[in-house]
């Protein structure tokens, strides 16, 4: 990332830290806010978050790494979430997960080498009656067979 990109991100982070600084229990809302805006929480922001909230860097880092939801690196172009909760498991989501790892070339919480994909496990997308379910970006997909998953990935590749 060059300095022209880093500057707006840091300015935004500083602004968000200021916005949340006076709220009790503000660390989690702040981290969610940063990730919602940037797609991840840059490692370089830990110091300013810690200083702004009067916490240690270790505390901030500990919370970021404790919750799998938070990313410390930029996500791939397409974030693919595969539900691994019980209802989806009973309808084949583990086989779907194995296929996802193979097709995308990455494991849980990783990006593919080409930067196209991030693979994330998720534990219920609210589509239990239409299991197995996945989410690609903001779009939910229900009753995802292995063939349907393959078609969805192929469609992403053809539009990229
Ligand atoms: S268990 Fe997968 S959507 Fe609810």
Task: Based on Cα principal axes, name the global outline.
Answer: elongated
Order of helices and strands: HHHHEHHEEEEH
* Radius of gyration from the alpha-carbon trace, in angstroms: 18 Å
Number of domains: 2
Identify the CATH homologous superfamily of the largest domain: Glutaredoxin
Structure report:
The protein is built from 7 helices and 5 strands, in the order ααααβααββββα. The protein is an alpha+beta fold and about 160 residues long. It has 2 domains: about 5-65; about 80-160, Glutaredoxin. The chain has a 5-stranded mixed beta sheet with strand order 2-3-1-4-5, with helices on one face. A hairpin with a 2-residue loop joins β4 and β5 (about 140). α1 runs parallel beside α3 (about 45-55). FE2/S2 (inorganic) cluster binds near residues 87, 124, 125, 126 and 131.
Characteristic terms for this protein:
160 residues; Glutaredoxin; binds FE2/S2 (inorganic) cluster; 5-stranded mixed sheet; alpha+beta; 2 domains; disordered N terminus; single chain
Quick overview of this protein structure:
The protein has 160 residues and is an alpha+beta fold. Helices cover 49% and strands 12% of the residues. It folds into 2 domains: 64 residues; 82 residues, Glutaredoxin (3-Layer(aba) Sandwich), CATH 3.40.30.10.
